[in-house]
């Protein structure tokens, strides 16, 4: 059982070993920065990480405290160097330490924190983290592995590390070794920016949340009935007209190409691939308002700001529709370094089955001709298979013979069961926002299922991974997003990353509780789910209940 060790404002600092800041240094730092002094020097347990690492071997004799003069040394490789700078950027605000980054060649490199690229047997995303009495060594085969290891390291430091301003503390780390690698290659979340539009800054912040929990895909639902959110030069009215609406009648908005590139690069720097979705043939009212020639009756429908689904579609019988799709997907593909293009395919209720299948097969070929791999909601299943095709399961009963058949023909599956992984479902009847059509999803419901066996008849080998979608009909602000995301996103992240052998509600609940003070310290909104034993003591005591002078006097 672990909960975040609560800093005890009155405790006397534990004896310090060489390299740790002495009491005078701590007091000086506190004076200079006018911040709280934390005295707790007990590190977290090495196993207090979300998602649960594969192997944890604690060594209590090897606890280590980050010294003020620590240096980060990294393999001489540009991507690894970027990870080291990222780590320094995470640690500098709260520690106030300079943490210079230097690169070095060879396996014998020494530094207080060493990030080492090595041909070890750790897989494409795995890492090994050794915390010893003389410092930290993080090893991986790729910069991505190093990046995931950095997220683990960050969680092992006291929660005060999340402070945007300096805190004088013993930055203690628990000794031992973690060896870690993901269960599934695809771990994602989806943000619907169509029902309500969200500014680039909000999306970047969501990317930060994904990165913390080792998710590696951000699916952006860019188009829907209520708004078109991505600039397409060859069809400019998509954004000037189609982007000017959203649910509830707000002003909407859209991403310029530069905005989108900024999102994609910010994600890439966090080892996250953006998966853009252009939802077709349904969910297209905003496009039809902008270009009535795409509508089956060639008449512009009124703009739509409600929340019904399934009424709109682009004309599958008109060649102009396929020109439009080729142009749009071509421009989006050109801005997207990742291999995936998501073509939606859900809830096209007004398009008859055979027409729908023919339409999807043409669109799939357009995607393939662009050199990209098709992803679509599982309604795509009846269409012909195409190399690499990925279906995204969003059902609620784990059974669908058509999807099973598509998998038999070669499709792989991303699982997003509506009744477990949909972040827009309410936690409880009194959750102020969200839906309940797929049921209520408390944290346990989000956690207690297995992506590998969830869809009956689909073998685990065909499961590429897991994704948590956030639809935004009722979500209007970053705080709303965070309320629905946290704490369920880490639950889904753990299902995607951690091996089944580590799965267990009681242990997860306690590890998750340790994230609360981190979010609070970082100013992140979250739902204080009643089934989680949240710490009651803040990570950084408030000025009022911190006996700063007492501490300095010890
Ligand atoms: C179903 S899931 C939809 C979305 C809605 C969502 C609300 C899916 C592929 N389609 O259009 O936003 O329910 O939960």
Notes on the protein architecture:
The chain has 554 residues and is α/β, with parallel strands linked by helices. It has helices at 23-33, 78-95, 143-156, 200-212, 237-240, 257-269, 285-290, 319-335, 353-369, 401-408, 418-421, 443-447, 478-485, 488-497, 505-513, 516-522, 548-553; strands at 55-58, 64-65, 72-75, 101-104, 113-117, 127-132, 135-140, 172-173, 176-180, 186-192, 217-221, 223-224, 227-228, 273-280, 340-344, 373-377, 390-393, 412-415, 463-470. Helix 2 (78-95) links the parallel strand 3 (72-75) and strand 4. The strands form 4 sheets. The protein has an 8-stranded parallel β-barrel with strand order 10-11-14-15-16-17-18-19, surrounded by 7 helices. It has a 7-stranded mixed beta sheet with strand order 1-9-6-7-5-3-4, with helices on one face. Strands 2-8 form a two-stranded antiparallel sheet. The protein has 17 helices and 19 strands. The two termini are 31 Å apart. Helix 2 (78-95) runs parallel beside helix 3, helix 4 packs parallel to helix 6 (257-269) and helix 8 packs across helix 9. The structure holds ligand TNX.
């Amino acid at each position: 059982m672990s909960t975040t060790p609560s800093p005890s404002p009155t405790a006397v600092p534990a004896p310090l070993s060489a390299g740790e800041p002495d009491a005078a240094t701590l007091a000086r730092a506190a004076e200079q920065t006018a911040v709280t002094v934390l005295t707790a020097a007990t590190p977290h347990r090495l196993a207090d990480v979300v998602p649960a690492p594969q192997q944890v071997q604690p060594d209590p004799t090897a606890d280590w405290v980050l010294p003020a003069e620590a240096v980060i040394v990294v393999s001489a490789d540009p991507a690894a160097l970027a990870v080291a700078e990222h780590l320094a950027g995470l640690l500098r605000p709260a520690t106030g330490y300079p943490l210079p980054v230097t690169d070095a060649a060879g396996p014998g490199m020494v530094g207080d924190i060493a990030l080492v690229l090595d041909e070890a047997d750790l897989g494409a995303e795995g890492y090994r983290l050794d915390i010893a009495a003389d410092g930290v060594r993080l090893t991986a085969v790729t910069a991505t592995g190093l990046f995931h290891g950095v997220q683990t390291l960050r969680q092992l430091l006291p929660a005060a590390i999340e402070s945007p301003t300096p805190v004088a503390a013993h930055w203690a780390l628990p000794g031992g070794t973690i060896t870690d690698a993901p269960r599934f290659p695809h771990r994602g979340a989806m943000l619907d920016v169509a029902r309500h539009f969200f500014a680039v800054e909000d999306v970047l912040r969501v990317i930060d949340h994904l990165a913390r929990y080792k998710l590696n895909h951000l699916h952006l639902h860019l188009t829907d009935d209520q708004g078109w959110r991505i600039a397409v030069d060859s069809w400019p009215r998509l954004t000037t007209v189609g982007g000017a609406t959203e649910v509830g009648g707000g002003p909407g908005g859209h991403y310029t190409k530069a905005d989108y590139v900024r999102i994609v690069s910010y994600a890439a720097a966090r080892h996250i691939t953006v998966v853009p979705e252009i939802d077709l043939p349904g969910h297209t009212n905003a496009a039809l308002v902008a270009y009535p020639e795409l509508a089956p009756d060639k008449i512009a429908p009124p703009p739509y700001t409600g929340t019904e689904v399934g009424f709109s579609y682009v004309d599958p019988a008109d060649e102009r529709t396929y020109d439009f799709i080729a142009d749009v997907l071509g421009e989006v593909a050109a801005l997207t370094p990742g291999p995936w293009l998501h073509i939606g395919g859900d809830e096209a209720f007004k398009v008859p089955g055979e027409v729908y299948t023919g339409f999807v097969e043409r669109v799939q070929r357009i995607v393939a001709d662009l050199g990209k791999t098709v992803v679509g909601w599982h309604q795509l299943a009846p269409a012909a298979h195409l190399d690499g095709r990925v279906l995204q399961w969003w059902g609620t009963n784990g059974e669908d013979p058509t999807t099973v058949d598509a998998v038999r023909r070669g499709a792989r599956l991303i699982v997003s069961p509506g009744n477990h992984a949909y972040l827009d479902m309410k936690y409880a009847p009194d959750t102020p926002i969200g839906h309940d059509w797929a049921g209520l999803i408390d944290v346990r419901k989000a956690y207690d299922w297995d992506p590998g066996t969830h869809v009956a008849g689909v073998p685990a080998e065909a499961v590429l991974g897991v994704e948590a979608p956030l639809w935004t009909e009722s979500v209007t602000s970053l705080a709303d997003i965070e309320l629905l995301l946290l704490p369920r996103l880490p639950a889904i992240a753990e299902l995607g990353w951690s091996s089944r052998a580590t799965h267990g509600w009681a242990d997860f609940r306690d590890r998750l509780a340790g994230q609360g003070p981190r979010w609070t310290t970082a100013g992140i909104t979250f739902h204080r789910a009643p089934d989680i034993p949240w710490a009651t003591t803040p990570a950084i005591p408030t000025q009022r209940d911190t006996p700063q002078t007492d501490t300095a006097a010890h």
